[in-house]
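Task 17 of the worksheet. Students: predict the tertiary structure of the chain below and write it out as structure tokens. Keep your answer in the requested format; marks are given for formatting as well as content.
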Amino acid sequence: MNENVRLLANRYEIEREAGRGGTSVVYKAYDRQAEGAVRAIKEISKSNRDIYDMAKQESALIKELYEADKINAFFPNIIHRFESEDCYYIVQDYLDGKSMDKLLEEKPMSNKEFIEAAKQICLFMRFFHSRNMVHSDMKPENIMVLNVNSDYMNGGSAMKLKFIDFGTAIRNMSGVSGYTPEYAAPEQCRVLPLDKRTDIFNMGATFYHMIQGKKPLKVDNGTRVLSSAERFVFDKNINSSIKRIIQKCVEDEPSKRYQSCDALYKDLCHVEKKTSLRIVIAAMTLSILCFIGSGVLTVSANKLEKTQSKENYIANVNKGNYAEAIKLDHTNKDDIYSKLISSFISDSKLDTDEDNFIINEIKSLDSIKETDDNYGMCMYEIGNAYWLYYYPYDVTADEEMSEEELEEYNRKREQELEKSRIFASAEWFDKAVSSSDLKNTSEDAYRRAQVFSGICSFYADIDRMEKEGSDSSQFYLDMWGNVEELSEYIDESNEVVSVRVCQTLLSLISKYSSKFSRKGIEMEKQQEILDHIISKVYQDGEISYSNDYARSIADSFNPKAVQMKLEMAYADSKER
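Model answer:
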């Protein structure tokens, strides 16, 4: 080994310094334990305790976000964290790219580049908001653009963004605000409460920089807070649709901005489709003109495009490529959305890619209309898919995990996922219940939608009501009615339905047995449901389900702990 080579943790061979800040240095290095894989290593001095603590918190948050978002891969993968006497080290995959602010120093983005990047930023922020966090510092400096050496706008690899620096988000959690003046919303400068609409503003300011090639003016000029009309002045050649989107993002009043990333993403998609349509029509017109020379055009580009689109739609449907067919035609032809959902859950899993498709191509675009045939059933089927099968995690065993560690890992994942499934399914069940056709189409589906919608509402309301001290007896009595109705599906022949019912009931009894008891629900009724679950799930001490997916869910159950909670609630009720 070369004696001059610097080696960290007896593993990472430092090649060169890649960047430097006030209290940290970033190195490019090679990982000797991973066949020389290229790594980025951030070295943070422990001389400033606040910065050291922040680095530890931020690396933990990025690791958590990366684990929760493996499909989109918006976050760098933190591989290793370790310490020396003087420094804290964070090791992650080396990002082969440039920060967006450096690229924008060269030139602004084209319309096509802008839409591609803006959609990814929007999806990133949507994911971030799903974790109940406010970012409050979105800016080009915090975005890495990968593949910058590829001609990705001319048939090369697609632009891919990674997001870095979450220090401000961490400070938000502790009630300490921070912002970058050029991208800040008025409420940040005025130290007012922040919410997701603050991030919408920051995104709009970032979009402005992307399309204009220059930063907006600072929110405060030293004497007063500037209005958005003063800060965001557009060149005449800026696409009018893009300009309108940015202007709506950066409205001074939060109530006038986009209220969610879904609404913003929907408008970005509309602009993209309009732009693509113009390009397609122009290209087809030119092609036809070249082909027939000076002859008369017998078929308009628009008609030819529709014909080809229809043929492609039919071909994709025949092949079972329902997602591709829907991208071509969003109308509910031949009940295509039901076919799509059936194809998504055929592997007993609704993954993140499928979730993103539902959000971006169905929910955001409001694709299924209340006037469509089978609207209510479509809503029920989507809700059911989320409630039964939503599973965005990759839980393949780590090679170093023991069987006990994997079992505990799966149990924690299931616990984390429970509320995500319920909250994701809630709006679809609500739409199913309020539809005008589901009850006539299927009385059973309508009744189940009512029960599941009631369970979802309970979870949505319980935390708020407990904090307000307004969780009345009637609230729990109404909820118990849903519990008893849900328990009727314990013996459902579909094992996935059965195991999800058991899972939800176990969770409810475990968490709220004392509340149910205090509000007048007899302990014997709760015990009866628990006994019913145990007799269904277990036979001679072994899980009775034959379906692998159902078995994996049942593996996370802990009926003994639920029984203990019941006994404690029973003892408490006797003391009273």
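Marker's comment: The mean pLDDT is 84. The two ends are 74 Å apart (CA to CA).
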